[in-house]
Amino acid sequence: MASPTDVEVVAINFSLGAKIFLAMAAVMIAALGGALLLINRGADRAADESIDKSLAATQTAVHDALAGRSESLLRVTAGLAQVPTYVSRIVQALSEDDRAALLDQVEEYRMQTGASWTMILDHLGWLKAWTYDIEYFNEDFSGGALIDFALQGDSTQGYWIEPGPDGDLLFQAVAVPMFNPERTVIHGVLLAALDVDSAFVSEIKSYTGSDVAFFVLDTKGRADVRVSTVPGSDVSAAVGDWDIAAVFERDSSFERLVLDFEDRTLIGALGALRSPAGSPLGGYVGLRNRDEELAAYTQFQRTVGWVSLAGLLL
User: Fold this and answer.
1) Of 135, 160, 137, 131, whose CA–CA distance to 147 is shortest?
2) Residues 253-292: pLDDT tens digits?
3) 143 and 276 Cβ atoms separated by less than 8 Å
4) How far apart are CA 74 and CA 72, in angstroms?
5) Could you tell me the pLDDT band of residue 306, with boundaries at 50, 70 and 90?
């Protein structure tokens, strides 16, 4: 039988061991908490840096894709506007007010350019034929930079917003003057346009990995999303809350904006779509899911926590 003294010694030793264990556990927990905090901060910083790089690359990709389409369309349209047979046919049709001949020629232009629509204006900027709406003619389309620059003899490229049954439609457009052979007289202007549609934004997403949304500006300077790779209307509502006009006035090359939803956080970078005169008509936004960017870091953080806890229990 153990003596009272032996029992007291065991109790003291047990109490001391427990205190040492608890002290070590407290130190490990504190160290683990500090490590997890540092990991979390590092993960946030790394995720933000990764998002910024991805969005910058997306901005460049969107800009290059738009520029490539526009320059290709401008090159083809300018070449067709200089074909003597076509120009003489248009001049004769304009002089005789032959709408049938003008509609035939404008449709020929549409097929050869591969454009969504083409338009012929006279030397004053009056609409004479348009494949988008063949019943619409004899309207004054002068006054906008895209057309006025062409009426002055300069080929131009920009954007065109056209009302549609479900809201405004966004197009890339080019306008080229149609000269006489000596290039001393402008007979009219040829316009061609490409739709900024779901196929185009899906193509951008396929090689950037970023979601993309294109919008036009309403009369209050707010964004109205017209095409997007993000399903649903939540992005439209969120982007519509931004004061886009103020953002574009800053003319920043990289404007970072946050869209908070119940189930995710999207980080966006804006780009402007401007008229040839520099006025903003709309824009685009590349989007990255911050939660997805953080996923790998979050999993690592959990793994460290579980391993540390298991080591503590052992």
Assistant:
1) 160
2) 556 777 776 677 788 888 889 899 888 898 898 888 877 6
3) no
4) 5
5) very low
